[in-house]
Amino acid sequence: MFSTLKPVETDPILGLMAAFRADPNPQKIDLGVGVYRDDHGHTPILASVKTAEQQYLASETTKTYVGMAGDEQYNTAMSQLILGDVYAAVSERFRTVQTPGGTGALRVAAEFILRCNPDASLWVGSPTWANHWDLFGAAGLPIREYPYYNCADKDLDADAMLAKLATAGPDDVVLLHACCHNPSGMDPTFAQWEAVCDLALERGFLPLVDMAYQGFGDGLDADAAGVRLLAERLPELIVCTSCSKNFGLYRERIGGCAVLSASQTLADTVKSTLENTVRGIYSMPPHHGAAIVGTILSDPELREQWSAELALMRDRLNTLRQLMSRQLAQAGAAGDFSFIERQKGMFSFLGITPEQVARLRDEDSIYMVSSGRMNVAGISHDNVDRFAEAVARVLAQD
Ligand code: LMR
Fold first, then answer.
1. Does one domain contain both 39 and 93?
2. Which terminus in the chain has less CB density within 10 A, N or C?
3. Residues with catalytic annotation?
């Protein structure tokens, strides 16, 4: 049976973790996988997470099954975190299931969409997170592209995006990134969210929002402005969330798939369909991450502490963006890198070729995704000069 298999290429993002670990160069710089790092290169457990985890472990009385939808305290708290003030107005039409990470949420969403409409297609922006292609493709959803980022202008190509979306219809699901676009770091303005919302109403397509970085751009509420607008104005919406980055719970695999329906009755049918979908994939989610997030979000003190820790991560990323753009200019790197300061969140599209990325890896032990996507959090005050000089040299070689 197995002899039919061909070796599979390493994952373009996760494969970098192994390559980086194997590199003996003590000066190596990891700008690959999207994991937050402090100025010492560590990914510490947040203090609010540690406290919530200890509280939960002390109070935990059973390890029995939680059920297909996961922890309902977590589901409600996450719904409120996503929708803020809008939640009260739509709560009767909004249903969430806890999932194993944001990727689990996207996979549940994909299978749910195909159960609603076997003729559905998914539209992804060009470019999008590389794994969107694999996971939606594996679920059997046909994938189409709409223009998103213009590499020459280093900006969102809003006209081209809206023109393409104006051709989408009721069988189409349009994937949008809520904030901190992965890989480009370039987000729509509120006016562009309004234009997308108008098109969804006019053309009848369903937005599917991937929200993996709430709080990493401009703040917990500001980063949700687009998704809240859609929830206020549209009859239907899917939002997939992840707590990997904003709670630093990467390996706990905790996320959620939230669906807004046109009526309360439909919302109940949606919830039972989501639960049945989950049952057919992994039966039910693990509980530990949900217990931590649920504890933090329901305790005012812990919530405030977490929100301050998140603000520190966000501020560090924004400071690093300024530092990088200044150091690249000082190192004489060809081109204007001030666009880095306009991008949001963990990633920046550096605008260098896959060959230049390979040279940075081979000559300087600097690791990033071959598209030129870099994890800004991998930069530190200690390595920024080395990084800027290497980029300047590689650019000068062409
Ligand atoms: C990334 O884009 O680097 C992260 O979301 C990690 C992943 O799973 O790809």
1. no
2. N
3. 129, 210, 245
